Amino acid sequence: MMISGTTKLIGHLGYPTESFKAPMIYNPFFEREGIDAVVVPMGCSVEDYPAFLRLFFRLSNAHGALVTMPHKVTTTQLVDTVLPTAAIAGSCNAVRREADGRLVGEMFDGEGFVRGVLRKGRKVAGARALVVGAGGVGSAIAASLAKAGVAELSLFDAHGPAAEQLAARLREHYPDLALQVGVNDPAGCDIVVNATPLGMKEGDPLPLDVSRLQAGSFVGEVVLTREITPFLAAARAQGCAFQVGTDMLFEQIPAYLEFFGLPTTTPEDLRAVARLRKEDAA
To answer: Is 72 marked active-site?
Structure first.
């Protein structure tokens, strides 16, 4: 793709950069559509990041930033406005500059998850949901489920205070949401999410008692290293519909594009145009 003096620059900020996949998804789409923008990996260490983020947005052609580990939490303290979903999640993975120069931070991990559920024909508004894992991605999913109108939300984390703190942030923004904390029983839940790292390694325990899953439940996974984790395999055996971790990744990219004010597309189109290596495409 041709880069010129008019090209909009989207920095992909994190450290290290070797595993970054976003440039191989966004840039082929930009090239095909003739969109004058480019995503560039930018490795920035933890100690340099606070100064670098502000300096990056002083560039006249800096259009936005995709933020990944280890900077998502720090970013909430560096932008001028943290939107509600990012505030609940306690982390940002996207920053844009407004016309007046203010930096606005948002979180799209949960949006990607919820869009995937909806596109698979499942109802979120009024549903009962369980999120196991109250870290960054679990908090983001819980925030987006609340935004989408779930009626009841159960939260569980092996580190109990993390779930309590997430519940407190949710209550601040969604005071009418029915919340349970410390419960990881999926019985009676319409949506069940594993938002823990369990399943990344061989021999990991399952995040919950899968025998309690009901066939009508929709089960979601966030692990990206394998498509069918032991948890999803067990849920499938119980007759549950499910969503794999990479669906969340591709579903959130259209939301990012909308946030940056750029032309958008479908997850299927992005999968088709992406130039991922075979080992990255699982």
So the answer is: yes
Query: Which SS3 state, helix, strand or coil, does residue 58 take?
Result: coil
Q: What is the pLDDT of residue 277?
A: 61
Of 18, 111, 15, residue with least CA distance to 72:
15
Catalytic residue among 21, 72, 120, 123: 72
Cα separation values, 269 from 53, 121, 152, 251, 272, Å = 31, 19, 34, 11, 5
Angle, CA 225 vertex, CA 207 and CA 40 arms, to 5°: 130
| pLDDT tens track for 133-155 | 999 899 999 999 999 999 999 99
CATH of 8-107+249-280, one of 3.40.50.720, 3.40.50.10860, 3.40.50.1980, 3.40.50.1370: 3.40.50.10860
